[in-house]
Write a structure and sequence with these properties.
With about 160 residues, the chain is an alpha+beta fold. The chain has a single domain, classed as Nuclear Transport Factor 2, Chain: A (Roll), CATH 3.10.450.50. Helix content is about 55%, strand content about 25%. It is built from six helices and four strands. The chain has a four-stranded antiparallel beta sheet with strand order 1-2-3-4, with helices on one face. A hairpin with a 6-residue loop joins strand 3 and strand 4. The relative contact order is 0.11.
């Protein structure tokens, strides 16, 4: 009888451990999807002053983008000049994220540098089982865009 109870207890612990591990793994995927890990890695490289490596990393996830050498070279030059023009990377905040049926994600970030913020937009596409970067762009007009949006929402009480 003792052995039966011990065996049942051991089986229960094993089943609970396996179930908890699967639930934890699933919960991590929900909270930090693969495309977000790609964005995080890109921004970590930007923070380290490795903009060229960041562009190479995102473009490397998509065979079609990795063949677009002119666009990659242009983006590397633009991102490379951000540090010298705007100072050191400070932080980032996501402004919006739009998802389409688990196959497409658009992220728009506000990225703070010492002297000026920039806007970074990243698009991800998952045609099958793997996420890849579909597009990357940035511009330095985010402050103007915020001002336009805020001004368009003014209410003057006109009768």
């Amino acid at each position: 009888m003792r052995y039966v109870i011990r065996f049942a207890l051991i089986c229960t612990v094993i089943v609970f451990t396996v179930f908890a591990a699967q639930y934890s793994s699933h919960a991590e995927q929900i909270h930090n999807p693969p495309y977000q890990e790609m964005s995080d890695k890109f921004f970590n490289l930007l923070q380290q002053g490795k903009a060229t490596e960041g562009v190479d990393y995102l473009f490397g996830t998509n065979p079609a983008l990795s063949r677009m050498q002119d666009e990659a070279t242009n983006l590397k030059a633009q991102f490379g000049s951000v540090h010298s023009l705007m100072g050191s990377y400070v932080s980032r905040a996501i402004l919006t994220e739009t998802k389409v049926e688990g196959m497409f994600v658009y992220q728009h970030y506000f990225v703070a540098y010492e002297r000026q913020p920039i806007s970074v937009r990243i698009k991800y596409y998952k045609p099958d089982a793997t996420w890849m970067c579909y597009g990357l762009q940035f511009d330095g007009n985010i402050a103007d865009e915020i001002q336009k949006t805020a001004d368009s929402n003014l209410a003057f009480g006109v009768k």
